[in-house]
Amino acid sequence: MSRRRSLTIAGIAAVISIAIAIVISFAIRWFPPAASEQAHNTDRLYHVLVIASIPIFVLVTAVILYSVWQFRMRPGEELKDGPPIHGNTRLEVFWTALPTVLLLGLISYSFVVLHENEKKPAREIDIGVTGQQFAWSYQYPPSVTGGKPLESTKLYVPKGVSVEFNIKTKDVIHAFWIPAFRIQEDAVPGITTHWRATPTRLGTYPVVCNLLCGLGHSLMRSKIHVVPEASFKSWLASQLSSASTGAAASTTTAGATG
Amino acid sequence: MSATAMSTTTAPTPTPTPVRKGVLARIKAPGFIRGGIFFLGGIAFATFLTWIVRASTGHSTYHNFLSWEAILTVSLLAAPLFFLVGFGGFDYWFYWAAGRRTRPEDHSGHGAYTWKDYFRINTDHKVIGIQYTVNSFIFLLIGGLIAMLMRAQLAQPGSHFVDANTYNGLFSVHASLLIFLFIIPVFAGLGNFVIPLMIGAPDMAFPRLNALSFWLLPIAGVMMLASFLVPGGAFADGWTAYAPLSTDAPIGQTFFSIAVQFAGASSIMTALNFLVTIITMRAPGMSFFRMPLLVWANFATSLLVVIATPFIAASQFFILLDRALGFNFFNAAKGGDVLMYQHVFWFYSHPAVYIMILPGFGIISEVIAVKARKPIFGYRMMAFSLLAIVGLGFTVWAHHMFTSGMANWIRIPMAITTAIIAVPTGIKVFSWLATLYRGVLHLDTPMLFALGFITTFTLGGISGIMLAMIPFDIHVSASYFIVAHIHYVLFGGSLMTIYAGVYYWFPKMTGRMFDERLGKWHFWTTFVFFNLTFAPMHILGLEGMPRRVSTYASEFAGMNLFISIASFALGFSTLIFLYNIVTSWRGGPVAEANPWRGLTLEWQVSSPPPVFNFDRVPTVVGGPYEYGVPGAVHGIFAPTPAAAPAGGGVLREPSR
Question: Does domain B124-587 have CATH number 1.20.210.10?
Answer without folding.
Answer: yes
